[in-house]
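Long-time lurker. I teach an intro course on protein structure, and each term I like to show students one example going from raw sequence to a predicted 3D structure in token notation. This year I'd like something fresh instead of my usual example. Would anyone be willing to generate the tokens for the chain below so I can use it in lecture? Attribution to the forum is fine with me.
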Amino acid sequence: LGLRTSLHVDPSGTSRTVAALREPGLLCGTTTFVHANGITDEELRMLADVGASLSVSPDVELKMGFGSPVTGRALAAGVRPTLSVDDVPSAGGDLFSTMRTAFAVQRGLDGGLRSRDLLEFTTIDAARSCGLDARTGSVTPGKDADLILLRTDDLTVFPVTDPAGSIVSAGHPGLVDTVLVAGQVVKRDGESVGVDLPALRTRLLASRDR
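-- Reply from a regular --
Happy to contribute to a lecture. Here you go:
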């Protein structure tokens, strides 16, 4: 049907999921494979050959013992990985910390990756994996104005000399000053616009207690 799908892959690699899908012709560029810590380099090249995407969830993968995230191996095979959280109760729900973990782990393994790589994983590469790169993922004339503006006067990052490095190595949700979705402001001066936070907190507490 040409629909975009995502598939969590057995982290042990024993199921050979990618190869199993390729054999009957079911491996295609509209699928995103999540985790995939145990897949072989040959299977990663299979993903590259069909233009499939890969989503790395470094915090959950390390915490649950899946093994090292496949970030560097994916790049070597020609696959631009994207980043995901996977399980918010088990890991922080923001992509700042996800970028930091992915960056630190890969630097520890082989010294690879630049800060700008991580920003691309979470913006243009992510948009491409969802088939939305013609609409969003970069600041380009004609695309939706999906933007976040970060404060640079916060003492956790001040003074900023390398914006990409500061975002990846020290970024956090508290820096987010303004958010625009398709040009509409949904957060301003660090506060959500049009969201009743007291009511939301009441609902969350009721859900927790139940």
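Some talking points for your students: Residues 202 and 208 are 10 Å apart (CA to CA). The chain has a mean pLDDT of 94.
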